[in-house]
């Protein structure tokens, strides 16, 4: 009879542990998924911002006999522009290239309508994402315009401001959902642990009544919480990156775009899983250690 009771308790304990691990894994999977979405949303946001360019134009008022000298000066100016703080990348566009682009955009194959030299040479500048901010873009333009050889800088400020504001609005919503999932992770994992500890409340109180110290009682529960939290975190992370790998392979995108960000995400998800599990275990166990025996029947 005693053997059957022990086997029943062991099965119930295994079932309880499996339930807790699955709960932790599912919650951390959703939390990690939101983290991946946030990381990639930020990356694509920066990519789109880098496609918004400004055009810096060279002075075209020079004598034809000085053309070789002017080309050299333009090359020096181009190198200086590349080193400026707001510049992500810069592309030099010669007069010939500008004329070619104009023909393509107008759908013209002939040179009869205009001469090649009517288009000025320029530099197409992609700004760093932080300088697309409406509060900083004017500063970036001033810095570019201050370079000797640059006479004018033009940009579509309305388009830039609109894109910047829309991207930031989307990122804020995604960040808000990520915080919400973090709160849900805390609540759901805490509830799973509380139910597990609740089933052992009589064991906890019995150990205390026979003279066991609170630290002695807490230790095995904390060790178990660390193990369950770690197992749940690993399962959740494996499922997360398995799903993410399948998804990115289907759409033809790179799986790893920034190892450092993914590394910190793994640490965050793993740390949250273990920390919340341990904290919930300590709080729930401590509650029963402080309660009276009669309270155990009504908790």
What would you say this structure looks like, in words?
The chain is of the alpha+beta class. Helix content is 70%, strand content 8%. The protein has 2 domains: 1-47 and 163-290, no CATH class; 53-131, Alpha-Beta Plaits. A 4-stranded antiparallel sheet has the order 2-3-1-4. α1 runs antiparallel to α8.
Descriptive keywords:
Cell division protein FtsX; alpha+beta; four-stranded antiparallel β-sheet; single chain; 2 domains; ABC3_permease_C; transmembrane helix; 8 helices; 299 residues; Alpha-Beta Plaits; transmembrane
Please give a quick description of this structure:
It comes from Chryseobacterium soldanellicola. Helices cover 70% and strands 8% of the residues.
Largest sheet: 4 strands, antiparallel
Overall residue-averaged pLDDT value:
77
**Unreliable segments (pLDDT under 50, ≥5 consecutive)?**
none
User: Strands across the major sheet, in which order?
Assistant: 2-3-1-4
**CA-based shape:** rod-shaped
Number of DSSP helical runs = 8
By secondary-structure content and strand pairing, the structural class works out as: alpha+beta
- Summarize the amount of helix as a percent range: over 70%
What is the percentage of strand-forming residues?
5-15%
What is the H/E string?
Answer: HEHEHEHEHHHH
Any idea how many domains? Answer: 2
Q: Count the beta strands.
A: 4
How far do the termini sit from each other? Answer: 30 Å
The radius of gyration computed from the alpha-carbon positions, rounded to a whole number of angstroms, is 32 Å
Question: What are the SSEs and their pairings?
Answer:
Elements: H1 2-50, E1 53-58, H2 67-82, E2 87-93, H3 95-106, E3 122-127, H4 134-145, E4 150-154, H5 157-198, H6 201-209, H7 214-251, H8 259-290
Antiparallel strand pairs: 1-3, 1-4, 2-3
